Amino acid sequence: MNDEEALIRSFVVATKQERYIGFLANPKRRGKATAALLHFGDLDPRWVVPLPAGKQAAEEIEAALRSRGAGDTCHVISYGEEIDGRQMALAEALGAVANGCEGTLLSCLPGRLAYFAGEAPHNRCILVRP
Known about the structure:
Elements lengths: L2 H9 L2 H12 L4 H7 L11 E3 L7 H10 L5 E6 L8 E3 H9 L5 E6 L3 E5 L6 E5 L2
């Protein structure tokens, strides 16, 4: 299982997993999955850790992810084509999100730790699975 499939299987509601995995795996349909991230409502609420409104700077999010075991790199699924599908330094990926690459999922520990940034400034959360 690759990072993207692990991310979807762990943090997206069961009824939508196959659909998103199929879209992401198909270059012609990938855009449907990444566009959905802007107003994404399919995260499994059991694994969502909301971020307080005053704690959403890239440095604060990085510290919160690292305190949960994130390493130096992450895999990116994003509406922002310039970062979508890449392995990136965690700080660089969070910086890109802070500079407008909304609609982004960062897989920090495949299937166990991720970060989601939707379009609205309050639509940000950490995804943690024990």
